[in-house]
Specification:
Elements: H1 6-12, E1 18-23, E2 28-33, H2 50-53, H3 63-70, E3 74-84, E4 87-100, E5 103-113, H4 127-131, H5 147-159, E6 166-169, H6 176-185, E7 194-198, H7 207-212, H8 228-231, E8 236-240, H9 247-259, E9 261-262, E10 271-272, E11 276-281, H10 285-290, H11 296-302, E12 305-308, H12 319-334, E13 340-341, H13 343-351, H14 357-369, E14 376-377, H15 384-387, H16 404-421, H17 426-433, H18 437-446
Parallel strand pairs: 6-11, 6-12, 7-8, 8-11, 13-14
Antiparallel strand pairs: 1-2, 1-5, 3-4, 4-5, 9-10
Length: 452
């Protein structure tokens, strides 16, 4: 009998608090608790139907029953389970189908407690956590052969060992949040909250209460409610797209960061917090500062450790690695057995400029999986804008001496030199190449290019 991908389960091992395995009808075949919060209602539920164990759930609300029916995994869905005496616990459930060929023969249900406090916490106070998916990535999930990315992985591990604020910047889709998760999961805070807030999604009028919470009666309808800093106490708070945050709110954030304390809206008591801050920018730092999208004093405070993630077009040697990884992922999710992509497809991938970066590549592989009928993804199964792209050259001589890395470096050196000859400053050259000044300086040094 086949099972779910063992390697994928091992990645989730540190993430789970308890595990359930059922047969194709929903009857429990294996049940294991790794972290106990109290006495179980039933000591050994093996043999029971999953809806007998969780009697308040039904075929539509149980992730196990829906996965058995729909044959598709469910990732990090919040469930309320009454598996302990006299109270209900809230969990994030990740449920996978177990397949034998195209037939679903069972399900694996991986659960993590969302609220570990015995008294519990109101649902809306941890909405950011319940909406967060896949926050168990580590630096090992960053696949690369690129020199700059290898150095970034090393910097990430070092940044995880301190409490200094980290600022990660780069184009959309480059994997900035994966680096943020890796910092948290390699730190001593890994068992504490990891909370991500997209700053562009905060309404202007709710910014202060979102970060610092509210006190009952401070305004009409106000209740005692924790803000993001209290939720993340002892853990990590990620401020995504911080360059979109209202400038007035930035000054209040700066004061909190410097003092490591704040007051709730309408509150009198000073609340001390221990939070590691990671901020994410989807623009070049110099552009953000020059256009006054971020206070310079806040930048100096949050940008203690700077990590720039280069776009995929600057590290094309990573494309084969990423393609293989995404194919394995979607084989697992869709129950297929695709072996790879054709040479024509890989040539197109290596020629394409990837404006959407790694995220775009992943979505293109997913799209191709919907149409692929054989074991190899062909050109015809790609989206139109990719498949109609014409390679710049069909006369590359690939022989025993050919090295893709060397060929890419030769082209980089050629265009960097052209940009430098056409510019009077590094900023101008970087602008011509559409990369940041920091990336250009790194490439000049690592490629041994002399500046006249």
């Amino acid at each position: 009998m086949s099972t779910v991908d063992v390697e994928s389960l091992l990645k989730l091992f540190n993430y789970m608090d308890f595990l359930v395995v059922t047969d194709k009808d929903g009857y429990i075949e294996y049940y294991k608790i790794f972290t106990s919060l109290g006495s179980r209602i039933i000591e050994d539920p093996v043999g029971l139907h999953i809806l007998e164990l969780h009697q308040h759930l039904d075929h539509e609300t149980s992730t196990v029953m829906r996965v058995l029916k729909n044959k598709e995994p469910i990732i990090n869905e919040k469930q309320h389970l009454n598996i302990f005496k006299e109270r209900t616990v809230t969990v994030l459930s990740t449920t996978f189908p177990i397949k034998e060929g195209n037939e679903v023969v069972g399900a694996v249900d991986i659960n993590k407690y969302l609220y570990k406090s015995i008294d519990g916490i109101k649902d809306n106070e941890y909405e950011e956590i319940s909406n967060k998916k896949n926050y168990f990535f580590t630096i090992d999930n960053v696949l690369t052969k690129n020199k700059a990315m290898v150095e970034i992985k090393n910097r990430t591990l070092k940044a995880a060992q301190t409490n200094s604020p980290v600022m990660i910047y780069g184009e959309t889709g480059t994997g900035k949040e994966l680096i943020a998760q890796s910092i948290h999961n390699h730190s001593l805070r890994k068992d504490n909250p990891f909370i991500v807030q997209n700053c562009s999604a905060i309404p202007l009028t709710l910014g202060e209460s979102t970060f610092f919470g509210t006190t009952r009666g401070s305004f009409t309808g106000a209740e005692n409610k924790m803000g993001l800093f209290e939720m993340a106490d002892g853990g990590t708070l990620v401020l995504d797209e911080i360059n979109s945050m209202d400038i007035n709110l930035q000054s209040k954030l700066l004061r909190t960061v410097e003092n490591e304390s704040f007051r709730r809206v309408g509150g009198k008591d000073l609340i001390n917090v221990d939070v590691k801050l990671i901020s994410i920018l989807n623009e070049d730092i110099h552009s953000v500062l020059e256009n006054n999208k971020m206070r310079r004093d806040l930048f100096y405070r949050l940008g203690v450790v700077l990590i720039h993630i280069p776009p995929l077009r600057e590290r094309k040697e990573d494309i084969p690695l990423l393609v293989d990884s995404f194919i394995n992922e979607y084989n697992f999710k869709m129950g297929k057995n695709i072996k790879g992509v054709s040479k024509d497809v890989m040539d197109l991938f290596m020629e394409y400029n990837w404006p959407g970066n790694v995220r775009e590549l992943k979505h293109i592989i997913e799209s191709a999986f919907n149409f692929a009928e054989g074991e190899i993804i062909d050109k015809e199964e790609l989206p139109h804008h990719i498949s109609t792209q014409k390679p710049t050259s069909n006369t590359i001589n690939i022989n025993g001496k050919f090295s893709l890395t060397d060929a890419i470096e030769e082209h980089e050196i050629k265009y960097i030199k052209l940009a430098l000859e056409s510019s009077s400053t590094l900023n101008e050259a970087a602008s011509l190449l559409k990369i940041s000044r920091q990336t250009l300086k790194y490439k000049i040094d690592s490629l041994g290019i002399e500046i006249e």
